Amino acid sequence: MEEHEKKTVKKHLGKGMPVFNPHAAGIDIGDRMHDVAIDRGNTHEVRQYDSFTQDLESLVAWLKKEGITTVAMESTGVYWLNLYLLLEEAGIEPYLVNARHVKNVTGRKKDDTDAIWLQKLHSCGLLQKSFQPDADIRVLRTYVRQRKKLITNSSDSARRMQKALELMNIKLHTVISDILGKTGMSMVTAILNGERDVDALIKLKDGRVKASEEEIRKSLHGIWSEEHLFMLRHSYHSYQFFQSQKSECDEKIKQCLLSQVAKVNQGDITGIGTEKTTRLKKNEFTFDARGLMHSLLGIDLCQIEGISEISAVELIAEIGTNMSKWKNVKHFSAWLNLAPNTKITGGKIISSKMQKKKNQAGLTLRMAASNLTKSKSDFGDYARKMRSRLGKKGGVVAGAHRLARIIYTLIKEKKQYDTAILALNHQKWKEHKIKYLEQQLSKLKAVA
């Protein structure tokens, strides 16, 4: 019996993950101390630096000396920001990564092992960089976010003013539309100055107020208590203080936009950003922000339904003007958290939910889309259609998603907004709907 020839099988074992970033470092960010890890061949070297500015500069200098070209760090609070900016200035590319993507480190949880794990992942190209705006946009974003906080604080002060008046049974807010208007603030100021005569207070009524003098007279007859007047005075001064700070923010935002427009127009800012002469609406910019945004982007975002002047400034302050930072419009919509996080395994969708995260630009678009159902345009028809199909919350997300796709395309391709495209799409949907209903009707007739 012949012996069977032995078969020789060659096994090719991998030598490990390929290295895409050989000169990479990992930094574990903390409030008081940063742990920095670099590769030393068969081992890692980990150094600890304090979070003071002098220590951060020493950290960056050491990384440059070691030939490091890119660094991965977790987005921990705001502790990463100063080091991030220093690395950018030094020519080292910083990767700000989501802490959820790198949390599954083997072994015990320590700062030095976290830094080594970040370095390993980054050297193999397994980390995704979080979006960070350019330096000019980052400055604008800071002022715009501060302005939004001041508006929120002003609203809180206004509610406390109204509560103080209600506790004194002064029903002024029930007869005039806005207590923060000319008539309301004039009367509140007179009350704080010691005026109690109803006839004298009625003389402060503006001609545009529709309420009669008899209604206002009855609403101003209250119970004057010292503690509630004290509360009213504090709330009034807080409101005035926040409003003055908001005006300072408006001036800073104007200067930021003017500097960016000057770079685009080669220093020419003639006739741009002038002060508004018309009567301002509540919380509106005192300058022509729409014209500044038009000069900066080359397009007018305010032509889009739902996008106001304030929404346009808040949106650009979050996303910037460079759309190439996202691969395509789908990545842009997902970053805005306007698309579901679909998870597929075994060819089946196991989950398709919105992520629980707050994206300021996405929230701005959702606010813009929340009132589209009241519009009589084709965009309004689309919003009402999606609301009937997906519900109120789902309809708002769908409207914001369409706004995001339109804005991305307009900014990237420098196209002007064209309502004819929306009208054409809406007409196609109507024809498809009519065809479907006719088919259903013919089926019902055949059965009958």
List the helices and strands and how they pair.
Elements: E1 24-28, E2 33-39, E3 44-50, H1 53-65, E4 70-74, H2 81-89, E5 93-97, H3 111-123, H4 135-167, H5 182-192, H6 198-202, H7 213-219, H8 226-264, H9 289-297, H10 309-319, H11 329-335, E6 341-345, E7 348-353, H12 360-369, H13 378-413, H14 419-447
Parallel strand pairs: 1-4, 4-5
Antiparallel strand pairs: 1-2, 2-3, 6-7
Would you mind describing this structure in some detail?
The protein is an alpha/beta fold and 448 residues long. Among the domains are: 24-123, ATPase, nucleotide binding domain (Nucleotidyltransferase, domain 5); 151-243, no CATH class; 299-342 and 359-417, no CATH class. The chain has 14 helices and seven strands. It has helices at residues 53-65, 81-89, 111-123, 135-167, 182-192, 198-202, 213-219, 226-264, 289-297, 309-319, 329-335, 360-369, 378-413, 419-447, and strands spanning 24-28, 33-39, 44-50, 70-74, 93-97, 341-345, 348-353. Strands 3-2-1-4-5 form a five-stranded mixed sheet. A two-stranded antiparallel sheet has the order 6-7. It is globular.
